[in-house]
Amino acid sequence: MQVAVHGREMAPGNAEPLVHVLHRMQAHGLAPHLTATLAQWLHSLGHPVTLPVLPDDGRHDELDLWMGLGGDGTLLDTVARTARSGVPVLGINLGRLGFLSSVRLEQVDEALAALAQGRYALQDRSLLEVTDHRELLGDRNFALNEVSVTKRDSASMVAVHVHLGEEFLNTYWVDGLIIATPTGSTAYSLSCGGPILHPTSGALVINPISPHNLNVRPFVVPDHYTIRLQLEARNDRCLLNLDSRGVDIDGQGTVTIRRAPYAVKLVQLEGSSFLDTLRTKLNWGLDLRSVHTP
Q: What pLDDT shows up at residue 76?
């Protein structure tokens, strides 16, 4: 199995565990190829790379799997590199929470053995696509978690006039507005009071950030709608964010969002599920009365 391995700059203490994972991959018969970003970071910390390094451009048709080593931000960055290719993606968690990168370091050998033996499933996760602003976004105009529009810095709040298809929904006076996928419902949207959706739900969440009109609440809509945001900002610029990538846009402009016509395939290892992750990462069902403190 030919595996592209991606990572971003992180705490120097993660270099040794990361190198350990690369060695274990080879021991299980997997063939890792590093992205240039990861190879440069390892080299800067005194770990010269002897593995093949992938060029930043090119389709890499020979690959069977993309692997993100780090945290959820690394996995999102990995998805940004590969979503249109249809190559499956797996995240190994070297960070803290790791909701998407759910394989912990102590589970690496078990996970690599499952990959080598084909003991895993693939789950399609829907993506959002921004159909305008291509001059700024290029071919990375999609997001796995959410697309959001926010005010810049300490600027005044933004009025966002929202249409679902051709029908007017509402005007939100807000610091920003989040359009989240089911996968993203446990990310930024959740921290802003949004609901949790099962990752295979055919729905999106429209969630205001710090709304001035307090009678508006997060709204779940079918994902067949094209969502059009007409901005009206007192400042001349706003931020358009696709997961962890952001660009400046016209504060009086339009953002058009739809479900992408392609999906990312996340690796689902045996014995793990979204519901397990909810219980272990978000402490669902934890009864504080049963937790004993010294």
A: 94
